[in-house]
Amino acid sequence: MDALVELAWEPGWAPLFLQRLVSICETLRKQGDVAWADAVAQLRAHPVRRLIHEDPVSALTYVTAGRDPCRLLDLLDHHPAAAPLLQGSSRAGMDLMAAVSELGFFAAQRGIPRYLARIVDTVADQKNGAEILTLSAGYLREAGYVTQEKRIARWVAQDASREALQVLRHDLHARLPLRTLHCGLPHFARRPYQRGAFDLITLASLPEDQPAHRLRELVEASFDALKPGGLLLLGSPAAAPPEAALLEALMRLTPRWRGPEEISGLLAGLPAAKVARRRIVTDGQGRRIYALVSRVG
After folding, report:
1. Number of neighbours of residue 42 by Cβ within 10 angstroms
2. Cα–Cα distance measured from residue 216 to residue 230, given in angstroms and rounded to the nearest whole number
3. How far apart are CA 258 and CA 238, in angstroms?
4. Is the pLDDT of residue 232 over 80?
5. What is the mean pLDDT of the chain?
6. Largest CA distance in the chain
7. Cβ of 167: how many Cβ atoms within 10 Å?
8. Radius of gyration (C-alpha) of the chain in whole angstroms
9. DSSP H helical segments within 201-259, as ranges?
């Protein structure tokens, strides 16, 4: 570990440092839960933790335990709103941020807004006057990449955070027919917002703290809110990547890694007669998994 810290003095050190740290954490994690708990305590007490937290991404995720996905995405995507988080960053921190942002998990997070924008554009291109519902919308950064906004009649953004809804209202009301819905996902599942009302519903990151039966209720409520011919998109981190142990130990990130079987299970309660097509796909690197479910038109 001490040798890893010493690497910070070498030119172009960050990718090699990160590669070795990922490998060390992965090896330690394989030794079992008890040994891993001891290893995590040692890693967090070692100067390597202070070094990696020079990186604004690592520092933010550690402080928030991953519960601030909006600001994290802005950091990863170099959004102007993230500038305050970079103030005072060291040379080592910026070098590390560049390397950390290319880890599979973070690179996949960075790609979410562009992927969602392509889906929105496709639906809007197929149906002029498209009506869209985004669940857990955050800052709705995908709207910045949409090119077919003139074909969108209504875009409803749901989120439990008033702050997030205030940000997106400030940023997007001028160019989108935007409406906001302040409630939690469990409330939405119990009392769906307008049945049969939307051409597209997206939930890019399924909740990680809900039992399976609650998630199935949410999926079924979302499907009920689709118009005939509408599309439901659900997303999640896929299988655990090599850096999973590092994320847990030094960034306090413990995403719910999901495979195709678990995603399929969440769709099991949908009425077969009303489902036109269901697909489960991964992104190009297999870091994120998506379910796309079309309703009979």
Report:
1. 14
2. 19
3. 5
4. yes
5. 94
6. 63
7. 18
8. 20
9. 212-224, 244-251
Q: What is the mean pLDDT of residues 162-173?
A: 90
Give the tens place of pLDDT for each residue, 170-223.
888 778 999 999 999 999 998 777 788 999 999 999 999 899 999 999 999 999
Separation between Cα atoms, residue 109 and residue 73, nearest integer Å: 7
User: Is 58 within 8 Å of 51 (Cβ atoms)?
Assistant: no
CA 233 to each of CA 192, 236, 255: distance values in angstroms, whole numbers, following the listed order: 16, 10, 19
**DSSP state letter for 230:** E
Report the pLDDT value the prediction gives residue 27, as an integer from 0 to 100.
96
Q: Quick one: pLDDT band at residue 102, thresholds 50, 70, 90?
A: very high
DSSP 68: -
- Are 101 and 107 in contact, with CB atoms under 8 Å apart? yes
- CA distance linking residue 220 with residue 216, whole number of Å: 6
Q: What region does 231 belong to: left with phi over 0, alpha with psi -120 to 50, or beta?
A: beta
Distance CA 274, CA 250 (A): 45
- pLDDT at position 199 is 98
**How many Å apart are CA 212 and CA 265, to the nearest integer?**
9
pTM of the predicted protein model: 0.94
CB 104 within 8 A of CB 287: yes
